[in-house]
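Q: Got a minute? One more chain.
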Amino acid sequence: MWVPGAHFVTWFDGRVFRCDLKGGLTYFDFRNTAEYCRYMGGMWLFDLWVRNPAAPVTECARSITTTADATIITNVDDLGDVWTADDVMTGTTSKWLNLAYELTPSSETVAPDGWVDFTLTLKDGKTHEVASDITWDGYIVEPVDGYAPHKRLAVTNGVGRFRAQALGLQDGESMRMKINHRFFTSRAEAVVRVSADG
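A: Always. Here it is, folded:
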């Protein structure tokens, strides 16, 4: 579970404190984290985003949600930006703390049964610079339409590459590739149009 992009949510459901992996918390009801916590009558308290699984926890991005008049006792000099609870509960203010994923094909079109090279780039969610500190071999290539001979994708210094074939696809169809990892699906997706003109 301690993988790049993992998002852990600590929340109070009105009775007990819980810590859940975000994908598992909201997978079946399709709510965002804030909506789910509110639906359960609770409060979203603390988030932790794993960027580089080899780095210490202190380098993970963190978010603390409190009431406006709460006192926080800490030895951390800078707690970062201040957001109101109403802003946080929209579920949209913390996305920059995580990684951004970009899957780019080498060509927008491919001939039937032709090959395309794909590049997966991990980027800092805030700066959109390549996350060159991340090296991890647990990404999974999901060929929705088409064929990928290697299902496992290694990312080195924030970049990974693989090849896929438009095997059995005809003119006018699309080759579609997705990047997943064990606990999170659809990290990135790319579509390439199949054309006899290739």
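A: The first helix runs from residue 22 to 26.
Q: Perfect, thanks.
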